[in-house]
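Risk mitigation, structural track. In case the binding assays with pyridoxine-5'-phosphate fail to produce interpretable data, a predicted complex structure has been prepared as a fallback.
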Amino acid sequence: MRLYVNVDHVATVRQARRTDEPDPVEAAALCERAGADGITVHLREDRRHIQDEDVTRLASSVTTVLNLELATSEEIVALACRLTPHQTTVVPERREEITTEGGLDLTRDVARMHEVVQRLAGAGIRVSLFIDPDLRTIDRAAKIAGVTAIELHTGDYANTYRTSDAGLERLRLAAAHACQAGLAVHAGHGLTPRNVSPVAAIPEIEELNIGHTIVSRSIMVGMIAAVREMRELIDAARVD
Ligand code: PXP
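Fallback model:
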């Protein structure tokens, strides 16, 4: 199971003062030292945390792999094609949202999605689509040429796991369905030390993207300890 650490919120703290600390590039290097398999950042259209220069610096400094999350905006797709990170994860974006609230709607702007995926894949970048754990959406993703993986949105599970098993069951079914459709399966959003283990135990899931809780915890115990804690929980949940 790969753990990719999302360092967006290191940049959130920096942007609160528009200064040069804390540096997400320095944080990424610490995550790698602590056992992260990759670094994830989301370059949002409103540039509320990660900036273009951060992505450029990460593209040349990351020693594991870089996973760039992006919406389908032209300018950011062009930047991705220029920097050729190992992976891009296409996400929906709404300016007024606090975080990515749901997965992609693959019934809308289909032509644009096909075009973006083709350009990214054509540049040699692995392409993943961030979607809800919905079987029909998985089937739609599987039909888009150039899509290698889907990332299942775990936000609903994270909001409901205390009172219901339904969210976990949906993730299990979706992971199995996507795997059968020939897609690699990733997951993320809202995962924390309290809820990560059942998701990490789903055998088809090969990559987790985790950000907010690790950056939060790093304020208390340091980035290396925060990544190691998550790494140990994930590794302990796997039987393979
Ligand atoms: N995966 C995707 C596609 C995301 O957009 C985010 C949030 O930026 C995450 C994973 C990480 O979510 P969290 O910060 O809640 O761990």
